Amino acid sequence: MKRWHLFPVLSLLCLSPFAQAESTGEKVLQLQQQMAVMQGELSSLVAVQQASKGSQSALADLLARTQRLEQEVRDLRGELDTKTHALQTQQQALTAQLANLTSATTSTSSTAITASNAALINSAAVIASAASNTSAPTIQGLGQSDYQQAFDLLRQGRYGSAVTALQGFIQRHPQSSLVPDAYYWLGQAQYVLGQNDAALKSLDTVQTRFSQSSKAPEAMLRMAEIYQAIGQSGKARVVLDKIIKRYSSTPSAQKAEAQLQALPAQK
Description:
mainly alpha
C-alpha cells in the first residue's frame, strides 16, 4: 500500500521541471515581447531625435542662407546707391557741358552768319551800300521800299519778321529784279531759324530760276554748307561740283574747290 502512495509524489516530482521550464519560457516570451516593444519605442525615439536634429540643421541652413541673402541685398543697395549717385553726377556734368556747347554754338553760328553775310553783301554791288552802317544810295528795283524794309529786319537780327517780309515782297513783286536777292536772304534767314528744308528750297530757287544772277553761285555755296552741316556730304559734293562746272574761273568756283577739298573722303 505504501508503494501506491508514492506514485503521485513521484509524478509530481517528474512533472515539476517541465512546468518550471514552461513558466520560464512564458517569461522569456513576455520579456522578448517587452523588449520588442521597447526596441520599437527606442527606434521611434531615435527617429524623432534624428528628425529633430535634421530640422534644426535645416533651420540653421535656412537661417544662414537668409542672412547671406540679406547681406547681398544690402550690398546691392549700396552698389545701386553708388551708381545712382555717379549717374546723377554724370548727368549734371553732361547738362552743363550741353548748355555750354549750345551757348558756344549759338554764338559761333551768329558770328559765322554775320561774317558770311558781310562778305556776301560786299560781293554784291547792288546791296553792298544798303548793308553798311553808313548812309547808302537807294536800292534799285521794283518794290525796292518793301525789299529794303525786309532787308533791314534781317540786318537787325529779327529773322522771323524778315522771313515774313521777304515772302511778302516776293508775292507782291514777282517780276522785280530783286527777287533773286530776296530768295537768297530768305534762305539765309530760314536757315538761322533752323528751317533747313525751307532754306534749301529757297536757295535752290535762286540757282534754278535765276541761274544768271550774281546770287546763284553764292546760293549754291550756301546750299553745300547746309548739306554738310546736316550730315549730307554727298549732296554737298554734288552741288560744289556743279558750281565748278557752271561757274568756272570765278571766285565762287574757287570757294567751291576749297570746300570740296575740305569734305570727308567718300567711302
